[in-house]
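Suppose a colleague, Dr. K., hands you the sequence of a protein chain of 315 amino acids and asks what its three-dimensional shape might be. Before reaching for any lab equipment, you can write down a predicted structure in token form. Begin with the sequence itself:
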Amino acid sequence: MKKEELFMVIFGYLVMCLIFGTTFLAIKIGIDAGIPPFFSAGIRFFIAGLILFGLMVLRRKTTIGLLFRKEMLITGIGLTFGTFATLYWAEQYVTSGAAAVLSATGPMMILLIQTLILKKKVSRISFIGCLVGIVGVALLILPSFTLQGGRFWLMGCLLIVIGEVFYASGAIYSKHVIEKFETTSPIALNAAQMMHGGILLILLSLFTENIQFTSMTSTASIGSFLYLIIFGSMIGHTLFYWLVSKTNPVFPATWLFISPLIALVLGVVFYHEYLSWEAGIGALTVTLGTVLVQSGNRHRPVPVTAHEYVEVNRD
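The predicted structure, expressed as tokens, is then:
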């Protein structure tokens, strides 16, 4: 790799980590500005998915018929609807930094499903990483329970973890989808499932939330929407796939180790979120657990993010 290309890879990687690390604070800002959480998530993913899918159709990388396949609906329920319905609701009560760290438990949930339900053998280092991650989650949640809002804080934290179970289920199922649609662009697959998940989130919002469009006209609301759609759901994912094409699927996936810590720092510095020293140790412990789980799975096909799915070590 030439020096210029290496520089672009490093720069792109840092920008991707920064984008994924800032999306949690952007979600928090939008919700605090009065945007209903389910509606916010639904509009974000439907619009982003629609734009990406439209571009893929124009470039003849896919066809509109892909949208009507049941596999896209099932994947959208796991990777977008279940994952982000819980995350957006929880961020009404949970700090953006804690939400980011808890969202990094996805690989651990994949490991648990593969072990307990699918009865697959896992490496010892991955199992240790899962135990370390569980300890980290406890350290992150419990010391802040009485300080951050009582039962709603705890409920929000638990819902984020449940959301990662949805993600893990969708990620495991997506391996079947990739094999079935092997000639279809992964970006098109991701865009289609985002549209399905976005529509379901909007429907959930219509039945459960009081949508007042006046609350969405503030600078914070509009800025949150635009940032999450353009940067969080489009530029960040495009960078991810570009990095996969220039390096390998493993290297870009290491954002899971960096972005949650970025989110934690941003929440404290720019949004004055409270962070106890116990929660800080818990966040680092969760990150360590994620590192161990991923390193133990480095030779296995593993979906690597909650937003897209690729086959690790496919080369």
